[in-house]
Design goal:
Helices cover 47% and strands 14% of the residues. The chain is of the alpha/beta class. The structure holds zinc ion.
Length: 688
Amino acid sequence: MVANRWNENESKNLVAEAGDDPADQALAVQAYASRLLGADMTLVQHGGGNTSCKVTRKDLFGADISVLHIKGSGHDLAMIDAAGMPAVRLEPLLALRSLDGLSDADMVNIVRCNMLDASGPNPSVEILLHAYLPHAHINHTHATVMLAIADLPNAAEVVQEIFGGKVGVVPFYMPGFDLGKAAAEVYEAAPDVEGLLLLNHGHFTFANDAKTAYDLMITHVNMVKDWLERKCGKVLKPSGPVDHAMEARAIDLMPVLRGILGERRAEFLENRDASMPVMDLRAGENVQEFFARPDVEELAKRGVATPDHVIRTKNFPLVLNARILAGGNDAIAAAVDRYIADYTDYFTRNNTRVGGGKTQLSPVPDVAWIEGVGIIGMGADATEARIAADLAEQNIAAMSNGEDCGGFYPVDEQDLFDMEYWSLEQAKLPSRNYPRFAGHVVLVTGGGGAIGLATAQAFADLGANIFLVDLGEDALTKALTALGPDHDGIALDITADGAAGKAVNACVARFGGIDVLVSNAGAAWTGEMIGLDDALLRKSFELNFFAHQTFSKAVAQVFQVQNRGGQLLYNVSKQAVNPGKGFGAYGLPKAATFFLLRQLALELGPMGVRVNGINADRIRSGLLDDDFIKERAKARGIDEGTYMAGNLIRREVEARHVADAFVALALAERTTAHVMTVDGGNIEAALR
Ligand SMILES: [Zn+2]
């Protein structure tokens, strides 16, 4: 059952907060209904769906005008507020209906010209459908179970059986003028209907108040769910926790696939250094149940439940069955090449049909169905990968429910191509000018500390997805909260046996691979060598040398499988070249790490892996805390500020300066075996 989440008190409070104007009140309550719909993934996925309300407002001269508020394109219903629902004058939209045809460009232009606030977001491309229905409150979703019946060969009959004339059926048209007109005609022929099913597309409900329109949406969806359950016995669950055996296989397989896809993408973009896709694995009970079907390979060729998905998932998944997997990497690469050839043919065929003016999108798949492994969503970053994976899960649910209840027959290739290469649909995607590190997975050890988190943030600001490793669960949680969604991490002791493998596997399971290791964690133990406890020195070596080595090894093994280069970055220390009295226990392993950096640069260079490091000094952090600074400053007879700025340029060096240096090294695409000094200038510690 889809829950009805309406809370009358909450709705009343929102109306009260909206002020005295009934138009603002109606808009506030419609935005509330929209958020409730958007919060349920079985109803609305990632920017899909749209809602509207019609109100009367005054123009500058005090005259009443009819206005349609509708979701702004690109806004997410789950978070929408009044500002996300721009107002458009209704009369000019209604006048358009007398035209025989209207181009998308003209529609967008006229809509924009009639917005009450010229700076508002572009109204949804489904605006004319909302305008031509007379109801004050309208909801449109692509609920999973609705898609299952929208793609049935006898959808109209089924709608009649379930709703007995209460829901109209609209044939498939691209969103825009034609769909708006067609829907209005269906409604006007049966004005008692309380909703519309748009074949191969989605569902509308409407009423003159927001609550009734919302209630109808929930009721309709549950009626369809009941019917599917009665008809086919069960409805596929939307998602579930990842199965561990499948995840273990995915950890081996994802870097292989990622490397192959990265290479094909680089070839397509003609950029040798182009990034690989980020991946999002789904291997819950729903996926296992789906893979157990005998018709999986046949269903893979059917297409997407609603054309809304196509810009995120493409029409077909890459299918890797047990036979292909048994053939090893060459067989996987051959399957990818077949996919790319098919997509390229599809593009060429349809581009010719429409006159040849389109530019081909990347032919690399966005979704993979991998037998025994799971369903993988892929994209230019973890957000895109997550969206592709969510939609892929929705698609298998709609697909299997539909197929078991009469047949899953989504829109044909031509309509789908028109949708995929439709400029208004493309406009929903974030700018294709991705930030510099989009597609880069960066693993940072000591990620909860000052330098680690500043470095993670600097990479994240440039589009990277971060995997943090930190000893403390609390520090990790805090750091991940600071980074925001689509980053992840693990809390463990990096000096423990097998810790590097565990952390690297967790990162691969989460994002599909790794691009950059920032081997940062460290700690200083002090004492002069002559009295130094052997056990303490060994402990320091475990953290300040061996952890760097074990993480390098584990990450470089992933680099080897991906076969697309990679980067190792170390937080070395000026101690590695410029000993400080009493800091032997810290400097010795750091000197070994400094040597490790050069050794790895030599050995991994032919694989395209770059290895660089930072020699930082006197950074306020867990290692150099306030008490320690106080003590050092006092020992030298100077104040703390002077102590912290004790360098050539007389300025304190902060964690963010170290972070910038790590980023600079990562950006220096032809630099390896380099150590950059970040200490404000210290001639004794200068490398050259
Ligand atoms: Zn739609």
